[in-house]
Amino acid sequence: MSERCVTVQEAQNDIRMIVSKSRETEEATLLEAGGRILSENLRAGKSSPPFPRSPYDGYALRAADIQGANKKQPVCLKVVEKLCAGKYPKQVIGSGEAARIMTGAPIPNGADTVVKQEDTDYGEGIVQIYRSQNPYDHYCPQGEDFLAGEKLLTKGLRMDAIRIGIAASAGCDRIRVVKKVRVAVLTTGSELAKPGTKLRPGQIYDSSLYLISERIRELGGEVVRMNSVLDEPEILKGRLREAARCADLIVTTGGVSVGEKDLTRQVLSQMGADKVFDRVFVKPGSPTALFRLEETPVFALSGNPFAATVHMELLVRAAIARWYGCDELFPHEKRGFLLSNFGKSAVSDRYIRGTESGGRILLPNGKERSGILSSMNGCNCLVKIEQGRANLREGERVCYIKI
Ligand code: AMP
Ligand code: MG
């Protein structure tokens, strides 16, 4: 069968075609909602605040009563009620009257402004006001934050601390979210050892298993299988079969290049998986492939931890974004400029690690090979060096994706 080599954009289009948006939803309490994707719009049941409230400790009164007041010629008002936060006013404020009021307490009817206590003599029965104010100065109207019926959060948004706070301020204790995407992660390689065990000669620790699994959790997925598999076709077949039974997506690493023990493609084809593409025209990790095993998408990434990371961000993340209908998760390209030089050129687009702040991108010194992970520490973006560009200098414009 002929090889299908695609660009990143083509790969992402294929992903859009084969990954369907999940319709399965469930309820989550606000305490469980962090990182979950809203499956329906959230509207305010009530206005917030539900009543006009005082932004200061002071006196609620009628602005018309204190026109022209100052320290030398104060206006005296009768204090008819004391209102702390949590109390509801009993009195209507008439002309010549005021209510002692604390921050957060409802402003009584009749009053249209609050004078800060620092601008008074703190009087209890009678208060002297030292300042003139206009109506609705120092006044938080009902619905200042949002009005009853207003749409506060749109479906497809990912819940973070602020959005959880917004839901709480609207009085919701539960929200409807998309069920978590279940992902199986299989790393392949007979050289891989479990961290915490003693390395035998020729072995290395399996970093990609932990890296990929944690990233899937960060992106809101549930890791339902985490297996490190020897380069043995029958074992790999068994693991893939189990994974297809319990997962919505499968991510494998290793075994996709052209070595004798590079078995992943071969095994998937023998299992009857449909090939979507064989290679992505990008560095690193160009041997990355996508299959469908009994309808379950299988992302076969390269084993090198950095190469695996690049395709995790470009492709697996695109699949998770599609599954959730969450555009915020999609690896959108942004524009920035380099604060460092970059010497390598490439026959295809190349992604390198970087640290971005305000669109300015610093590259770590040296250590750019795809088997190197340590220099990725602190990096927060992947910078695209476009095909044909060479010897990039500080100040040059580039595209990047945030990670
Ligand atoms: P492969 O993609 O299987 O050809 O592996 C490419 C390189 O990445 C080899 O040097 C592997 O030893 C290394 N490698 C493969 N899988 C992992 C892994 N899970 N963790 C760390 N390194 C790996
Ligand atoms: Mg291998």
Question: Could you explain the architecture of this structure?
Answer:
Its cofactor is Mg(2+). Residues 184-322 form the MoaB/Mog domain. Pathway: Cofactor biosynthesis; molybdopterin biosynthesis. It is an enzyme of class 2 (transferase). The structure is a single chain. This protein has 403 residues and is α/β, with parallel strands linked by helices. It folds into four domains: 5-23 and 179-329, MoaB/Mog-like domain (Molybdenum Cofactor Biosythetic Enzyme, Chain A); 25-48 and 145-178, Alpha-Beta Complex (Molybdopterin biosynthesis moea protein, domain 2), CATH 3.90.105; 58-129, Molybdopterin biosynthesis moea protein, domain 3 (Molybdopterin biosynthesis moeA protein, domain 3, Beta Complex); 334-402, MoeA, C-terminal, domain IV (Beta-clip, Beta Barrel), CATH 2.40.340.10. It is 18% helix and 28% strand. The protein has helices at 8-18, 161-169, 208-218, 233-246, 264-270, 305-324; strands at residues 5-6, 25-29, 42-43, 58-61, 75-83, 97-101, 113-116, 126-129, 151-153, 174-178, 182-188, 192-193, 204-205, 222-229, 249-253, 274-277, 279-280, 282-283, 289-293, 296-301, 334-338, 349-357, 360-362, 381-385, 397-402. A six-stranded mixed beta sheet has the order 14-11-15-20-19-16, sandwiched between helices. Strands 7-4-6-5-8 form a five-stranded mixed beta sheet, with no helix packed on it. Strand 22 (349-357) and strand 23 form a beta hairpin. Helix 1 (8-18) crosses helix 6 and helix 3 (208-218) runs parallel beside helix 6. 38% of the residues are buried. The site of adenosine monophosphate has 20 residues, from helix 3.
